[in-house]
Specification:
This protein is an alpha+beta fold and about 150 residues long. The protein has five helices and seven strands; from the N terminus they run βαααβββαβαββ. The relative contact order is 0.14. The model has no long low-confidence stretch (mean pLDDT about 95).
């Protein structure tokens, strides 16, 4: 189930990022490590966007992701993460499918974009299987910009 984050979800989310490098790769340079849990919700807020928790049957957080609309008719996905203890079970796919659906419904977007580190082969394979293609003109040496239309 995809739902809005509860205040206690942010402590769980912070625990999924064990070091400064993991934090930077997931959240970008604006979130410092160690993560200040009490201000994480505010730090992650994106204008015109939404944050979601993927919850299990007991309503425990197993994933987190966001979307926002950088331009009309487009939605961008970001900060996608599955709790380490739940990886390898197809939850990344479930999270992305639901996130794409919500993002498109709320924004009316036909185009969905995201960025992924080139070396993150697991995530790249997932995104490609969901119809995303690389856009080299908007990528750099480390990060691949991907787009899905439809």
């Amino acid at each position: 189930m995809l739902r809005a984050p509860y205040p206690n979800d942010y402590a769980a989310l912070a625990s999924w990022l064990p070091d400064a490098e993991a934090c930077r790769r997931w959240a970008g340079p604006l979130i410092a490590f160690p993560i200040a849990v009490e201000s994480l919700a505010r730090q992650l807020a994106v204008a015109g966007g939404a944050s979601y928790i993927l919850a299990d049957a007991d309503d425990r957080a197993t994933g987190f992701a966001q979307h926002w609309s950088p331009q009309p008719a487009a939605v961008h996905l970001g900060r996608i993460i599955i709790a380490p203890a739940h990886r390898g079970r197809g939850l990344g796919r479930e999270l992305c499918v639901q996130l794409i659906g919500r993002g498109r419904t709320l924004s009316g977007a036909g185009e969905v974009t995201l960025r992924v580190y080139r070396g993150n082969r697991t995530a790249r394979a997932l995104y490609e299987s969901l119809g995303f293609s690389a856009v080299e003109a908007q990528s750099d040496a480390d990060v691949l910009f991907m787009r899905a239309v439809g």
